[in-house]
């Protein structure tokens, strides 16, 4: 053993640098010991390699880097190789020897380059590549297995991009296969036969209006409804900003926009269903007309029609309360649209009351390009058909009901 004693100028501290077993090939120690305060530092090339503090804590400088991948089982891995393990997205696993459960440390993203680790038990490694920000499950960036929220309370997948005004920036789904379409499948579990999608108009889903697309073993349904204090909205089908169909949420009445039929001829004005807007009748106010002019007052004026292209289907009922201001002449009933044929159109007379003259037959028709339904009657089997005139009816109670179809002008 050899000793080298070092004393500081004040003489209060002294250190002993000792080499043990200097003649032995084994267990040769280099010992630094002594009295005093301060760190013991080993240096090479003026660089601190090992520092031992008074409290016994030892620190080391940066480990030397080597180009070769370590092969010895217990060899200390150099920093460059360790960094490469992370940058290459290599899974790191920890096994609990008591339970044989495998823990895969998972990264929780922080700000900048700061990342923290959290242990999670899973059979699929979660890997993170700091240089690219890629988070992957298993091989590549493909998530295998089911994503399950193991709780009975509501859980949401949230993203700030869901409310981005630019559609291209919003959260979405896209196939990972190049130049391939994207599809999403929703299916029931087990023996159930029902799948549905529900969207709400309120963050309080228990009190909101909602639209639901559902399917079961017997039907497929699109429904607008409400829950709690919510209000159901009308169901609207539109294309290109134009409403094609509206279903009233309260009454269930359906209305339609302009419909152009598919036909072999061009969809000109003549072929369009321009007035078939609602598939419902349109009201109009019919009047009793005399060829001599004048007006009368009414108890009833009820007229309805549906126009399909140039075909007008109508029904009308009128009853007068006074014809004092109606001049003498042949009587007729106004039509909702002008007749556009070169010949007369005949209509069905359902009812005529308030006649002064006994009659056995009634008829109504419209002449070519006429606007009115002319009224006719016969007084006997052998009598000729004649126009009904003001003198043939009771002005205070004349009532007529007719209906039919004809080709109109537009």
Tell me briefly what this model is:
By secondary structure, the protein is an all-beta fold.
Number of domains: 4
Instruction: State the separation between the terminal residues, measured CA to CA.
Output: 126 Å
Instruction: Specify the biggest β-sheet.
Output: 10 strands, antiparallel
Percentage of residues in DSSP E strands: 35-45%
Silhouette: rod-shaped
User: So how many helices?
Assistant: 1
Mean of residue pLDDT values: 75
Q: Which structural class is indicated by helix and strand composition? A: mainly beta
Number of strands: 27
- Output the helix-strand order: EEEEEEHEEEEEEEEEEEEEEEEEEEEE
Unreliable stretches, pLDDT < 50, 5 or more residues?
107-123, 138-144, 273-278
Percentage of residues assigned to helices: under 10%
Radius of gyration from the CA trace?
Answer: 48 Å
Structure description:
This protein has 410 residues and is mainly beta. The protein contains 1 helix and 27 strands. The strands form 7 sheets. Strands 18, 19, 20, 21, 22, 23, 24, 25, 26 and 27 form a 10-stranded antiparallel sheet that branches. The longest helix has 9 residues, at 79-87. Mean pLDDT is 75; it is low at 107-123, 138-144 and 273-278.
Task: Give me some keywords for this one.
27 strands, 3-stranded antiparallel β-sheet, rod-shaped, mainly beta, 410 residues
List the helices and strands and how they pair.
Elements: E1 2-7, E2 14-19, E3 30-35, E4 40-44, E5 47-52, E6 58-60, H1 79-87, E7 94-95, E8 102-109, E9 115-121, E10 126-129, E11 134-137, E12 195-200, E13 208-215, E14 220-227, E15 235-239, E16 242-247, E17 254-256, E18 282-284, E19 288-290, E20 297-308, E21 311-322, E22 331-334, E23 345-353, E24 361-366, E25 372-378, E26 386-387, E27 399-407
Antiparallel strand pairs: 1-2, 2-3, 4-5, 5-6, 7-8, 8-9, 10-11, 12-13, 13-14, 15-16, 16-17, 18-20, 19-22, 20-21, 21-27, 22-25, 23-24, 23-27, 24-25, 25-26
């Amino acid at each position: 053993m050899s000793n080298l004693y070092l004393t500081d100028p004040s003489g209060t501290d002294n250190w002993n640098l000792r080499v043990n077993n200097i003649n032995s090939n084994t267990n040769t120690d280099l010992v630094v010991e002594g009295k005093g305060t301060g760190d013991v530092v080993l240096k090479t090339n003026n660089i601190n390699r090992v520092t031992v503090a008074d409290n016994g804590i030892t620190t080391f400088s940066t480990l030397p880097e080597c180009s070769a991948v370590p092969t010895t089982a217990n060899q200390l891995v150099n920093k460059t190789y360790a960094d490469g393990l992370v940058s290459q997205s290599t899974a790191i696993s920890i096994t609990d020897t008591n339970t044989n459960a495998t823990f895969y440390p998972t990264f929780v993203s922080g700000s900048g380059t700061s990342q923290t680790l959290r242990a999670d038990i899973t059979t699929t490694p979660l890997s993170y590549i700091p240089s690219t920000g890629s988070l992957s499950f298993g091989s590549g960036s493909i998530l295998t297995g089911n994503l399950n929220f193991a709780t009975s309370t509501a859980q949401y997948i949230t993203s700030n991009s869901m409310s981005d005004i630019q559609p291209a920036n919003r959260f979405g789904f896209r196939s990972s296969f190049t130049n391939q379409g994207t599809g999403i499948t929703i299916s029931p579990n087990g023996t159930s036969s029902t799948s549905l999608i529900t969207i709400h108009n309120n963050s309080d889903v228990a009190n909101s209006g909602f639209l639901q697309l559902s399917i079961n073993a017997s039907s497929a349904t699109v429904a607008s409804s409400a829950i709690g204090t919510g209000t159901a909205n009308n169901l609207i089908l539109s294309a290109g900003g134009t409403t094609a169909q509206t279903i009233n949420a309260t009454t269930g009445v359906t209305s339609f926009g302009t419909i152009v039929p598919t036909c072999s001829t061009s969809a000109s004005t003549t072929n369009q269903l321009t007035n078939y807007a609602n598939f419902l009748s349109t009201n109009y106010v019919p009047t009793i007309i005399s060829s001599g002019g004048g007006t009368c007052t009414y108890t009833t004026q009820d007229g309805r029609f549906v126009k399909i292209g140039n075909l007008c289907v109508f029904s009308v009922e009128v009853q007068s309360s006074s014809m004092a201001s109606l001049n003498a002449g042949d009587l007729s009933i106004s039509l909702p649209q002008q007749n556009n044929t070169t010949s007369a159109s005949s209509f069905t007379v359902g009812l005529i009351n308030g006649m002064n003259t006994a009659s056995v037959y009634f008829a109504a028709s419209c002449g070519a390009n006429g606007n009115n339904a002319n009224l006719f009657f016969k007084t006997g089997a052998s009598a000729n058909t004649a126009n009904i005139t003001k003198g043939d009816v009771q002005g205070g109670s004349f009532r007529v009901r007719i209906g039919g179809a004809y080709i109109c002008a537009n």
